[in-house]
Amino acid sequence: MIIKPGATTLADWNAIYEGADVALDAGAWDAIDASAAAVARIVARGAPVYGINTGFGKLASVRIADDELSTLQRNIVLSHAAGTGAPSPVPVVRLMMALKLASFGMGASGVRRETVAMLEAMLVRGLVPVVPSQGSVGASGDLAPLAHMAAAMIGVGEIELEGRRVPAAEALRQAGLAPLDLGPKEGLALLNGTQFSTANALAGLFRAETIFRSALVTGALSTEAAKGSDAPFDARIHALRGHAGQRDVGDALRRLMAGSAIRASHASGDSRVQDPYCLRCQPQVMGAALDLLRQAGATLGIEANGVSDNPLIFADSDEALSGGNFHAEPVAFAADMIALALCEIGSISERRIAMLVDPALSGLPAFLTPRPGLNSGFMIPQVTAAALVSENKQRAYPASVDSIPTSANQEDHVSMAAHGARRLLDMADNVSAVIAIEWLAACQGIDFHAPLKSSDALQAAHMHLRAAVPALEDDRHFHPDMVAATALVRTGSLVASVPAGLPGIV
């Protein structure tokens, strides 16, 4: 994957997150060289410039001698590598490194060619720094996580290489690389920026897209299982309101159910006037989630292509301008939107599960078992779904509304983007399990309508599950069924099984 600074797409970032090889576009090197040369001229002038020949944060007034500039940059990396918690997932760290590479490629950070080449070489050779997941408040950059990345580049800390955690200096040696000696501003440039928050938010977005599409399929299957109406998906309804996501979801649900023999069997003479909201309002709820995810994607696409360290170097005038691009408020808002969407996708899915197991609402056998009483069927899987949804509700509280002053009140308002984004993968895991339970329940419900079949698209999803999980005749160990179905949801296999175009984000 060629990273084009300022012009890399969400699809490209997704490919990198999924493991694609990375290289910086060759056209970026001239801007990188010009920026580094500007820093050299700034140093030669001798005037104090923040982050180049001064201390950092509250210590910005302390002037640093020219012969100590390299030590200054090394010290900021070592002192700021103060994260804690479990290591961040390798795909997230790779994406963070690629985002930093793209940022440097814009030629506004003042780092030398060899520093950028080191970051690129580590990505190419599979060297992924071990980065603790906690410690950033999402302002002044993701300082602690990025400092752990930078520390690995100078031979300090640990690197994951071929599935093993290896001391950084040894991992570099095995890969034929020498630890980096940092030049003026380079330590600060490496650890200043929003790349950790942005990588986690993008990872959450990519997972959310798969979950969203999966939930469209399981929602249509549940509608079929309950012999619900497709009238609420009529395009005329959604055109009158005008929301793009709502229109797209209504269109998708109509396509998914088109040609269903189950639907045709009760198209006339159905005594139920209106379905429960969990069926009838899918376009409104899922459409709103889609609009939210698309808005978050637009924000993160801009952020991923921007420069967010400080100060910024303008080579045409040899200026170093201090600002606040490191403040991750846009990422925090985007992460909160993704969290809200994930929470609601799981919530309405759980309501459909609850509807299916209730014979008064679904018209199906109690708890979807042929012999209720002797068997409990889907009684407790619905409870599990409810537990996961409740957990996500707690996690969905907006992180962006919080702030706590740091650095002796110099950094007095922070975004909390890092943990706002970091929670998303755990939330996505929860929703994936809820969607998997709904898939199991909906297919079980459809089985009761045999020999009638659903549409071609939904029949494909039904058969895909049945290839891994047989219908539930009598109670059995339920956990393996849930594990198998959840794996198919998480990998996108459920979505891939459906021969119908589904709206998306990336």
Structural class by sheet pairing and helices:
mainly alpha
Q: Report helical residue fraction.
A: 55-70%
Radius of gyration: 26 Å
Taken as a percent bin, the fraction of beta residues is: 5-15%
The main pleated sheet reads as: 3 strands, antiparallel
Number of helices: 22
User: In whole angstroms, how far apart are the ends?
Assistant: 16 Å
Query: Under the CATH scheme, which architecture of the largest domain would be assigned?
Result: Up-down Bundle
Count of discrete structural domains: 2
Per CATH, the class of the largest domain reads Mainly Alpha
Q: Could you state the CATH homologous superfamily of the largest domain?
A: Fumarase/aspartase (Central domain)
Return the CATH topology of the largest domain: Fumarase C, Chain A, domain 2
Poorly predicted runs of 5 or more residues:
none
Largest sheet strand order: 4-6-7
Overall shape: it is elongated
Report the average pLDDT across residues: 95
**Overall number of strands:** 9
Structural overview:
The chain is mostly helical. The protein folds into 2 domains: about 1-195, Fumarase/aspartase (N-terminal domain) (Fumarase C, Chain B, domain 1), CATH 1.10.275.10; about 200-310 and about 335-495, Fumarase C, Chain A, domain 2 (Up-down Bundle), CATH 1.20.200. Helix content is about 55%, strand content about 5%. It contains 22 helices and 9 strands. The strands form 4 sheets. Strands 4-6-7 form a 3-stranded antiparallel beta sheet. Strands 1-2 form a two-stranded parallel sheet. A hairpin with a 2-residue loop joins strand 6 and strand 7 (about 165). Helix 9 (about 195-225) runs antiparallel to helix 14, helix 14 packs antiparallel against helix 15 and helix 17 packs antiparallel against helix 19. The model has no long low-confidence stretch (mean pLDDT about 95). Keywords: Cytoplasm, Histidine metabolism, Lyase. One of its GO terms (molecular function) is histidine ammonia-lyase activity. Its main location: cytoplasm. Belongs to the PAL/histidase family. One of its GO terms (biological process) is L-histidine catabolic process to glutamate and formamide.
